[in-house]
Amino acid sequence: MLVALAVLLGRFVRVVTRMRGGGSALPGWVVLKLVPDFVARVMTRIQSDHAVPVAVVTGSNGKSTTTSMAVAILEAHGKRVFSNPSGGNLPQGIASAMLTDVTLGGTLSVDAVVLELDEAYGVQLADAVRPSHALLLNIQVDQLNRFFEPERVVEMVRRIAEPAHTVIVNDSDANTRSLGNQFAPTHDVVGFDVVDRVAPDGVYGANAGNDAAKDARTPLVSVTAVDGVNTTLAYAGEPLAVRLPSPGVHYAVDAAGALALGARLLGDEFDSSVAASAISDMKPVYGRGETVEAFGSPLTIVMMKNHPSLQANLDALSETPESLYLAVDDGTPDPSWIYDIDLSRLDHVDVVSGSKAWQWETRLAYAEIPTGVVEQDARTAFEAFGTNTSPKRQKHRTAIVNYEQMMDLRRELGYMEIEGE
């Protein structure tokens, strides 16, 4: 009875939240207040009905995109999949995602589960979720105000993956490669990687004292070439042409991880050409390279989360942005890492906004990159961006924003749906 009440109340909050363009986690927060073990109850019923594989995707960057790719692969093979699409990776986010299809009795009828898990909360969620498969993407410098050191994240990720019998690791990241080596004696460990000539240099890894030497693991999937949104993946030695939802090596690595996970989940049913087509048909995940309409022309939203994600997205730019809006707020509490960013892909910024605007204006000044308007109020700043810019060469504007500013920007433009829908 309590579960039914929680589901009904959660769905009501979901409707209200959607109307306001709010976050996707609030309905789940309400459900968990009424039934704290709601996620564990639903997962237990899923797994007790029949042998449903449960995969978790975790790491510093790329979780949302990789999870969406893996789901697309499974669905293209005719599977019914439960997932927490696009960022709802805390307990309340997963509970919210369950509200879409769960019965009043707390039952979900699916063929597979693929969940994105936050590195910290994933430790407590692993017991409730009981994964059969774990995909470890990378461990990079991220949210030092929250995690302090990458070493702590290595241990968190290890604990998330430990219950699984199959662990899929990014062998181009020293930290996840090391975890794969630790798991090898007791788990089925599968690797994916990017060949040296394609791998980006610099700040993409955060070696936490792990041995950087590669082991003898043969990758199931490798990224062998990247050209904008086009990549070539080698699966079991055979080349696969894939179109990425957004340009960049980091998206190609996400695709390789998703392909490896799909292959392990589907077994003999896996068709690599079907998987490649599923990824190629994907649109960019909510706010991650997504293009929306603004001021009568396209606006590409580039979301940055931390040092590695910003650098990867800057390096993926095919040319210098003609009309550029940059907004960062207190969702990025400590922006000191911006002084290590290579900003050479930029030659100007039209508008700088958010509560961290002046820190960014100072950083840009050190790089001798001219700035136009500096305005902390996001609405005023974005209006100025529309007034002051009129893209001609690229025919579109570009916005580089952190997560919170991305959400505010989409609402400002009238995109009121909840993330992941």
Automatic annotation (TrEMBL):
Organism, as annotated: freshwater metagenome
Cross-referenced InterPro entries: Mur-like_cat_sf, Mur_ligase_cen, MurT_C
Organism ancestry: unclassified sequences, metagenomes, ecological metagenomes
One Pfam family matching this protein: MurT_C
A GO MF label: acid-amino acid ligase activity
Boundaries of every Lipid II isoglutaminyl synthase (glutamine-hydrolyzing) subunit MurT C-terminal domain copy: 305-404
Domain Mur ligase central: 57-260
Protein name in the entry: Unannotated protein
PANTHER family reported for this sequence: LIPID II ISOGLUTAMINYL SYNTHASE (GLUTAMINE-HYDROLYZING) SUBUNIT MURT (PTHR23135:SF7), MUR LIGASE FAMILY MEMBER (PTHR23135)
